[in-house]
Amino acid sequence: MAAFTLSLFAAGIPSEFAVFSTVCQSVCTGGQLSSAGLYALRELGLSLNFYATYAVVLDVVFAAVYTTVAVVIFWRKTDERMALLASFALLTFGTANFPDTINALAAEHPSLWWPVALLNFLGAASFGLFLYLFPDGRFVPDWTRWVALAWIAWQLPKYWFPGWASSDLNSWPGWLAVAVWAVALGTVVFAQVYRYQRISNAARRQQIKWVVFGISLAVLTFLGIAVALSAFAPAPTSPGTLAAILVGYAFIYAGMLLIPLSIGVAILRQHLWDIDLIINRTLVYGALTASIVLAYALVVGGLGELLQIRGNLIVSLLATGLAAVIFQPLRYRLQRGVNHLIYGERAEPYTVLSRLGSRLRIHAGP
């Protein structure tokens, strides 16, 4: 299966390059540029060949990282069923599901549509199963097996009968599609939280932390950048929007690479790094960055609206000064909150000892 998948992916690279090297005339799909997009590309001093090469290289690097992690897991953990499932899921998801490479091949050669549909389905199904079964290979709680089965059955029409509109969430109203995805992901989150709290030992908990951390950060990166691009750069019709899309997609792909890396660490090397420290620093500095950016935007936007000025140096300096003033106090408060969230009362030993002393005095009496 690995040889077959990688062969199709390699054969699809020229097909994908040809797609991105073509300017669409009516409805643009799969990242093709329109005439306006081509004009914006030339305004940036770039060629259509560069755009096609850039898009193909992103998919090739993406597939290479997923395949490498899958091979290493398979090589090191051949005797563990969960490791084999992880290896298979990473291979098929990284070469068939996320990149458009083999789909471009099927579009050029319709006779390959069935094997491509098979790989897409296997990638989606195996990765979904992995999320429900990791790390010990059991469905916990038991009812999640039926949820996983229903979700896999739901994928069947999407890949094998694409004409069925009911199976394609893209054709649904936005709020309903989001609700379905939220319920599906919610059951996965519940299963992992339940497993973490009720039945996992210390080693299993470390593995769960690694995988949940990597996938959560990847999903947040994907959604955050996708929402920002849809709001501020919905189509590459100007040099600025096209540049934002090119940079944004690079960050999306980089974020998605956290998934195989975190899974590889969880299965092979979960004891080498302190995941609690990594989560701690990520939460603190992620929240700090978002808060500073939001404060800067509110000050610049608010004063700009109030004073009816745009791009004024004084307003920018005021916002920068405010950000510098609140940085340290905000970091301290965020650090305390995150420490309490992760470590509980262990983060404040003085408080624990004071409370213990008070209790001892109460029990000892006068």
Q: How many individual β-strands?
A: 0
Please state roughly what percent of the residues sit in beta strands, choosing from under 5%, 5-15%, 15-25%, 25-35%, 35-45% or over 45%: under 5%
| Content-based structural category | mainly alpha
Overall mean confidence score, pLDDT: 80
Explain how this protein is built:
This protein has 366 residues and is an all-alpha fold. The protein has 2 domains: 2-23 and 30-272, no CATH class; 291-364, no CATH class. Helix content is 78%, strand content 0%. The chain is built from 14 helices and no strands. Helix 2 (35-43) crosses helix 10, helix 3 (48-76) runs parallel beside helix 11 and helix 6 runs antiparallel to helix 7. It is globular, with a radius of gyration of 25 Å. The model has no long low-confidence stretch (mean pLDDT 80).
Helix/strand layout:
Elements: H1 2-20, H2 35-43, H3 48-76, H4 81-97, H5 101-108, H6 113-133, H7 144-160, H8 174-198, H9 202-232, H10 239-256, H11 258-268, H12 275-307, H13 313-343, H14 349-364
Helix pairs in contact: 1-3, 1-4, 1-5, 2-10, 3-4, 3-11, 4-6, 6-7, 9-10, 9-11, 12-13
Short key terms for the protein model shown above:
single chain; 366 residues; 14 helices; 0% strand
Summarize this structure briefly:
This protein is mainly α and 366 residues long.
